[in-house]
Design goal:
With 328 residues, the chain is α+β, with helices and mostly antiparallel strands. Strands 6-9-7-8 form a 4-stranded mixed sheet. The protein has a 3-stranded antiparallel sheet with strand order 1-3-2. Strands 4-5 form a two-stranded antiparallel ribbon. The two termini are 49 Å apart. The longest helix is centred in the middle third of the chain and has 29 residues. The radius of gyration is 25 Å and the shape is elongated. The chain has 7 helices and 9 strands, in the order ααβββαααβββαβαββ.
Length: 328
């Protein structure tokens, strides 16, 4: 393929994957069951996913212990829908039904689906169906995107590329609504206003196109609602301020100092998003690395190592700073 030629398949997949990997996935992690089913107090007729037999909606679809609320025709104005309902719609109507229609996945419909009764199961279902969809789209290649969708879709004359664009829009649209509902819950649910409700977890990025290094990750995504601590540059000095001798001793002590600041903030190396290590020109980088690693342990994070002419304190051979998420 010419370097200037559009790779439509790659472009369509990357549109969704970028939004998922860099904006959505971290926002959906650690969704609680209370958030999953929540609706504002003043809303009395929200649509949701409910235990079988407990709904008052005109239509209660589903094959398992939980059903999803519907009505035909839809009410005007449209019903308020919970995160549970929106995830159910995305998992089944947007993804699973299309995976069955076009990519050989098991038959799926609103009536036959077993809806998740908890947030973790719903997110697992979402990830599974998203993986099937993306694998199917990749398998179409360029030629497959130019084939009509056929009678399985409301507009059979449209191309598969049109359907992929539609699914991308649906996922970005509805999952962004879910994120907004998480924000609304955080600021209106009694007892949570002003608190950092979402757990502060980080997500590692290790793209297949890059070398996978077991010692560090290529990137780290931090949750939007988390507090962070920025650790100032730490030298190889002990508690009295004395600078230790040699690159090995200084590297180990500088890393211990970083961990001390992290502990004071209520976090640790497993929550570090980025380490920066500054070595004076001419020191043995391998010795410095081994010494710092003996203190740091096997926690993978994003790392930058810089060679510098010197530090502000004479005799300092290494300086280390860090950025970490503070778990709630």
């Amino acid at each position: 393929m010419d370097a200037n030629e559009l790779d439509l398949n790659r472009t369509l997949c990357e549109q969704l994957e970028f939004h998922w990997n860099h904006q959505l996935r971290a926002r959906l992690e650690d969704l609680t069951d209370d958030e999953y089913f929540w609706s504002p107090e003043l809303v009395t007729d929200a649509w949701s996913v409910r235990p079988r037999g407990s709904s008052t909606a005109p239509v209660q679809a589903g094959a398992g212990d939980f059903t999803i609320d519907f009505a035909f025709p839809q009410p005007v104005p449209a019903a308020f829908t919970t995160i549970a309902w929106r995830l159910g719609h995305v998992i089944v109507g947007v993804l699973a039904a299309r995976n069955a229609a076009h990519f050989g996945a098991p038959a799926a419909s609103y009536e036959t689906w077993e809806y998740a009764g908890d947030a973790a199961t719903a997110l697992d279902q979402l990830q599974t169906q998203l993986d099937v969809w993306l694998a199917g789209v990749r398998g179409l290649g360029d030629a497959g995107l130019r084939v009509p969708v056929g009678e399985k879709e409301p507009f059979p004359e449209l191309l598969m590329a049109d359907l992929v664009l539609h699914i991308n829009r649906e996922l970005i649209h509805h999952l962004s609504e879910v994120c907004l509902l998480r924000d609304l819950y955080l600021h209106t649910k009694p007892g949570t206003s002003g608190e950092r409700h979402m757990a502060a977890t980080t997500t590692h990025l290790d793209p297949e196109e890059l070398h996978n290094n077991p010692a560090f990750t290529q990137g780290v995504i931090t949750p939007a609602a988390a507090r962070t601590v920025h650790v100032g540059g730490q030298l190889g000095t002990d508690g009295s301020g004395k600078l230790l001798d040699g690159i090995e001793a200084q590297s180990a002590q500088a890393m211990r100092n970083v961990l001390t600041v992290l502990a004071a903030a209520g976090t640790g190396p497993e929550h570090v998003a980025k380490l920066n290590i500054y070595l004076v020109d001419g020191v043995d980088a391998q010795v410095a690395y081994a010494a710092s690693l003996s203190v740091w342990g096997d926690h993978r994070t994003a790392i930058t190592v810089v060679s510098t002419a010197g530090h502000a304190r004479p005799g300092a051979l290494v300086e280390i700073d860090a950025v970490a998420v503070i778990p709630e």
